[in-house]
Every structure is written in structure tokens, then in C-alpha cells.
Amino acid sequence: MTDRSSPTVSDEMPVLGIETSCDETAAAVVVGGRQILSSVVSSQVDIHARYGGVVPEVASRAHVELLTPVIAEALIESGVPDAEIGAVAATHGPGLIGALLVGVATAKALALVWDVPFVAVNHLEAHLHAALLDDPDVELPVVVLLASGGHTLVVAMDAPGSYEVLGGTLDDAAGEAFDKVARYLGLSYPGGPAIDEAATTGDPTAIAFPRSMIDDGLDLSFSGLKTAVINHCRRHPDVVTADVAASFQAAVVDVLVAKALRAAEQTGARGVCLGGGVAANSRLRRVLTEVGEARGLRVSLPTPAMCTDNAAMVAAAGWHRLRTDGPSPLDTGAIPGLGL
Ligand code: KG4
Ligand code: ZN
Fold first, then answer.
1. Is the whole-model pTM more than 0.85?
2. Exposed end of the chain (fewer CB within 10 Å): N or C?
3. Residue whose CA is closest, atom 23 of ligand 1?
4. Higher model confidence: residue 278 or residue 5?
5. CB 247 near ligand 1, within 6 Å
């Protein structure tokens, strides 16, 4: 009998990935860390929209209800029989504790039943893999700009699994700034796509919002910008919302692009990849591509589906972790504040 609990990690090994760190319930089957056979995402955005943000307890309950059917759909769509799944990977942090526990407990149970390895995956590391999944020809080293609702990081990646955090936000994450400003402007939740949309009819040069720390190292700060938007709207009650949205977005994008390019210059990276929900921002994608390519860098833009939370990136990161570090112990817990 073959020992399924400590198999050779081959290029043909299908890994089931599970993602429940925030408000997306997701499962995916990925072969060899790069070939996506299925990726199912059930978003809870509509459930949380009426509260204007993610309610942790509501998220956990929704994961409990949604995860089993989402996994079943991912397995069926992949065409891989349960008996051929080589490992089960789940996000174990960072994220909401109750939400993480649902995915981690389910992954361990499946790994035990199928007698295959369980792999605990860092959600941020998974986001780094998302860029590589969509652009497998990317040449390392690269700089990854990871900007989501909870994190904003500038990371140098030498190899899958080998990273150095070069900078990060000192206060709000970029997505958090989008969400808070959108809420202040009375736009819909989540705020990033709402501001992106509103900005299409606005003038990005209408208001000169501050570009905090733009000439200063690789760390970022967005709370001053948020305050500047609020102060400007209070002083100018007749201001056009689309102009505020466009000018705010231009300020965020200028800073993000400047940091990514500075990091590439400092590390000698060949390219820049985007990751995280904010990577779906249309202006960020356009400006980074224009400016990055003008400097001879390869700019990798994951598809919007790969920018936001999904389980394909978890399965891919899990396959790489399994190969380098082996299975995770079954007493590995959920860690809400896990860093990269
Ligand atoms: O990575 P993600 O799906 O979840 C985590 O936070 O881990 O990122 C969600 C964040 C939210 O703050 C959302 O407003 C932002 O990504 N976002 C955007 C856009 N689409 C999503 N921000 C700016 N422009 C967008 N088009
Ligand atoms: Zn995320």
C-alpha cells in the first residue's frame, strides 16, 4: 500500500485549496502548483453590504454553510476523484479567527479522511503566488506590490517561498483607505470598485491630495490622505463626488507605483507583479504598466479574479510549501495576526 500521508510532491500532484480568511468562501484544485483545474469562489459581499463592512461572526457562519458545497463544486469541476487529491491546503492566517477556523478544521478533517498531508498556508504568501499563476513565464527576482483590504506590502521575491518584505503601510491598508473614503462619500460597499467606477467620470487633477511619503523609502501611509479627503469635502460641500474619487484614486496610485518602482530599482528586479484586491484597480493597472514598461520592467497584472481572494492561490502556495517544508502538523492553529 502507498503511504498517501507523506507522498512525493510531483508536478502532477493535485492539491485541494481552501480559503476562508475573510468574506470569500473558496475552494480550488490546482495541479503541480500551477495548473488550475477548478476555482470556485462564493462571495459574501451581499451579506455584509448592509452593514458597510465584514461582520466577523456573520462571516464565520456563512463559511460553515457555504464551504461544503463550494468544495464539492470545486472537486466535481476539476474532474479529479477524491482518491487522487494529493494534499489539502488551507489558509491559516492572517484573517478573522472564526472564519479561518472553519477552513482549517475542514481541511484537516479531509486530510485525515483521505490520508493525505494537510498544509497550512499564509494568506499573504498565497496572494504572492496568484501573480505567478497568471503569468507563469515571469522571470524572478520580482517585486510584488500586495495591496488588499488588510495589507499593503512591498515584497521582493527571489523564488517561490523566498521573500523579503521591503516596506509596508504604517497605518491604513490601501484597500481600507478606498473602503473608508467610499463610505464617507456615500458610495457602495466594497469601496474600491465603487471609487474606481465613480472616478471614470471625474477629473484626477481636480484636487491636489497629498502623496504621503512618496519620496521617502518603501513604507507607505494612507491615513493622512483619508483625513485630507474628509477635510476637503467639509470645506467644499459642493465638490463633485466623481472629482474627489478620481483625485483620491490618483493620489493612492501615484504612491503605490512610486514605491513598487523604487523597490524594483533597489533590488535589481526584472519585473513588478500586482497582488491583492486593490490590484483590480483600473488606474493602478494602467499607470504601473505604462511607467514600469517605460523603465524596461515586465509588469504582471493578475486577472481580477486572481487579484481578490480565491483558493487557487492557496492550493498553489500549498503545493510549494509541501515541497519545501513537508506537511503541517495537525495541531497547527489558525493565526489571525500571521505575518509574511
Ligand atoms: O484581497 P482582497 O479581496 O481581500 C483582502 O482584504 O484580503 O481585497 C479587498 C480589498 C477591498 O478593500 C476592496 O475595496 C479593494 O480590495 N478593491 C479595490 C478594487 N477592487 C477591490 N480597490 C481599488 N480598486 C478596485 N477596483
Ligand atoms: Zn486577500
1. yes
2. N
3. 192
4. 278
5. no
